[in-house]
Amino acid sequence: MSKLLDGLDNIDRKLLNILQKNTRLSADILAHEVGTSRSSVQRRINKFRDTGLIEAEIAILSPDLMNRKILAIVEVTLLRYRSDLLDDFRRMANSHDEVQQCYYLTGKTAFIVIISADDLKSYEQFTRRIFADNPNVDQYQSRIVADRYKVGLQIPVI
After folding, report:
1. Under DSSP, is residue 3 helix (H, G, I), strand (E, B) or coil?
2. What is the pLDDT of residue 2?
3. Which residues contact 101 (CB under 8 A, 6 or more apart)?
4. Residue 3 has what pLDDT?
5. Which class is domain 70-144?
6. 88 CB contacts (<8 Å, ≥6 apart)?
7. pTM score of the predicted model
8. Helix-strand-coil percent breakdown of the chain, rounded to 5?
9. In what order do the strands lie in the sheet with 70-78?
10. Looking at the domain that runs over 3-51, which CATH code has it been given?
11. What is the mean pLDDT of each run of 10 residues along the chain (158 residues)?
12. Res 1: pLDDT
């Protein structure tokens, strides 16, 4: 366990669990929820930010209201796994806003890529440009998400 995690007390842990669900709560509400003062909450949050424990605070938009009708999970296998080619794929994934997440895996599948698109036609055009036309992609297999049941990036802090 890292030194940073060793230094977390119960208030820190409660605060981190709450913040992962809602960063819009006021310091007063957070202080009440975790049983400490407003200034203590503010100091703790600043410490989390300064140490990099909190990497980012973002707004999560509704895909329905943004008219993003397609969410796809794509398994990608490569022909060659040289470091420079893996780096090329990572750069490609990072350079496209349609790519919400990209994971490098062990095993036969090299990457899992989560893609958001307006409609099936734009999704198909994107996959042709990014996967079909990529000389190092051996194959890719898409699974279109029928419904979302749980979406999140929370890490339980116990």
Report:
1. helix
2. 65
3. 112, 113, 114
4. 67
5. alpha beta
6. 136
7. 0.85
8. 40, 20, 40
9. 99-104, 111-117, 70-78, 137-144
10. 1.10.10.10
11. 76 96 95 97 97 92 90 97 96 97 96 97 97 97 95 90
12. 44
In this structure, the chain runs to a length of 158
Residues 19 and 139: their CA atoms lie apart, in Å, by 39
Query: Whose structure tokens read 């999560």?
Result: 60
Domain ranges of the chain: 3-51, 70-144
Angle between helices 38-51 and 27-34 (to 10 degrees): 100
What are the angstrom distances between the C-alpha of 20 and each of 23, 51, 127? 7, 16, 32
In the block, residue with structure tokens 């995690």: 5
The three-class DSSP label of residue 26 is coil
Q: Residue 90's closest CA among 132, 133, 136?
A: 136
Q: How far apart are the first and last CA of the chain?
A: 13
The SS3 call for residue 101 is: strand
